[in-house]
Amino acid sequence: xxxxxxxxxxxTVFHTRRGLVRxxxxxxxxxxxxxxxxIVGESGCGKTITALSLMRxxxxxxxxITAGSVKIGGRDLMQVDEATMxxxxxxxxxxxxxxxxxxLNPLLTIGRQISEMVMMHExxxxxxxxxxxxxxxxxxxxxEPERRAREYPHQMSGGMRQRAMIAMALACKPKVLVADxxxxxxxxTIQAQILDLIGxxxxxxxxxxxxxxxxxxxxxxxxxxxxxxxxxxxxxxxPVADIFNGPLHPYMRGLLAxxxxxxxxxxxxxxxDERLQEIPGIVPPLNELPxxxxxxxxxxxxxxxxxxxxxxxxxxxxxxxxxxxQV
Amino acid sequence: MAPLIEVTDLKKHFPIRxxxxxxxxxxxxxxxxxxxxxxxxxxxxLVGESGCGKTTVGRTVLRLIEPTSGSVKVDGDDIAGLSKAELRPLRKRMQxxxxxxxxxxxxxIRAGDIVGEPxxxxxxxxxxxxxxxxxxxxxxVGLRPQQMNNYPHQFSGGQRQRVSIARALALDxxxxxxxxxxxxxxxxxxxxxxxxxxxxQRDMKLSYLFISHNLxxxxxxxxxxxxxxxxxxxEYTDKTTLFARPQHPYTEALxxxxxxxxxxxxxxTHRVDGxxxxxxxxxxxCHFHPRCRYAEARCRVEAPALxxxxxxHQVACHLR
Lengths: 327, 320
Prior knowledge:
Order of helices and strands of chain B: EEEHEEHEHHHEHEHEEHHHEE
CATH architecture of chain B: 3-Layer(aba) Sandwich
CATH topology of chain A: Rossmann fold
Number of strands of chain B: 12
Mean pLDDT of chain A: 89
Number of helices of chain B: 10
Number of helices of chain A: 11
Oligomer: heterodimer
Largest sheet of chain B: 8 strands, mixed
Structural class of chain A: alpha/beta
CATH class of chain A: Alpha Beta
């Protein structure tokens, strides 16, 4: 099966007063129809800039996508003009954001926002677009969709707003959905509902999903394949089971060891008073990256080579890639 | 041994005012009659979703907001009825660490002065003495003494939270309310701060009220846990029992909703439907009944009391 989304060598920089900030460097991945690829990492690792780059939503200036291609069904989004790109957003690739309140227009009803977007892409009458909006709201399991379509975003709860945003993103059946921390602002019971919903819709429409998250639990539950980013670069990539059962990069190994887990009191894995494993230090600012591997000042295994050269991103095991000299 | 903190039937109602005359048209029952106790050296985890009242509990216990009714005893002294002046000496014994280290530190004051301020307020007037104490506190929380001259923006999120913790420790309190202290931090930094809190507890016999929505963190750090839903405690027991054999349907649903970092596990438990209702007009009877898959006729009319179903295990559910 040919992948729906193929990203290769994506590089995005920002020209700032403090110099050039390389937010995303040489990032490549591909996603098949109906599958979820998770991009994980901590704040400042470049995962959100990667998402915005896919949509070509990087403000320019100060930002600039300096290299790379983003192909959907063979067509490179980086090569099309802005008018074409505007058409492709929504019908080919759509995005949902962490905070629905900032992504929805507070002055328009939910129904109006969805139907406006449908009318832009498809030659539908106002009434038909309206019907589609209600149908989509029903699809994302919003109770009383007719009434809800006449409501404004502030009248809805956080979970409902996130559903409405998903309805809007999927209204034109895009091939690719980019979800940037879609459940981070939500309570845990609502998060579970939204993740289930995205999964169901994805199976139904065959959407390829790029899920950006810092929550390793969410990754384990939803993703088929995982890309780990650190300081703007990919440091590890593998199928989800391999990442969790046999992480290779010291950063990912440290991350997995540092999270407390529900169920440890039942005697699973750890004794209750055991200290959590720490990753020492902090994520470096992108304009002050260390020489060599960006992780080397926090890495217990680093040696002279790590402090001099950036390790290549290469296969270490079948279908398991990492950028580290020590594995 | 008497518990260090004893909270009995604590209530906090916020009036809703409307119209030109700002008449009270209703009340938000943010905290609706809750009781708990915390022993010396113990951590009580308080979990619940947004709007359940957990933050209000933390602040009312410290009297940062005035309770509507109920009593809060700190080491035997009831602080609920005290005047501000009477309360001041007791404030030394109880401190708070806030969630957001970016808004809880004054950006125009040097970190050393932030940590030293409680000392000044509570009568340590000699500059040398304060400096020495602040230096000691910085070392205790894992910061370098040179960083005392830095402003908050020069610290990372985790370091700022260390500054907040140092400030809370300045007066040698016995009790600290930690309100979502690691929620704003990156995963790799969370572990550093959790370990620090646990080390401090062991060395200084601190008691924590640890407020969080993150069940994994609560399970790791707490000795006992109280689960809140819409202003009431629905389950209250030691952590092993709570996480291994939850008895309240809400606790069960909450645990089932947590995504586990293990792709091999398959879900067997049910998901809970619906949103948390508005605390302005909570459902009658058991607040959880509209979302509860076990609900019966009785649950819709009669609010269940929190009662002991096994030694040290309290549950508010008709069906247990």
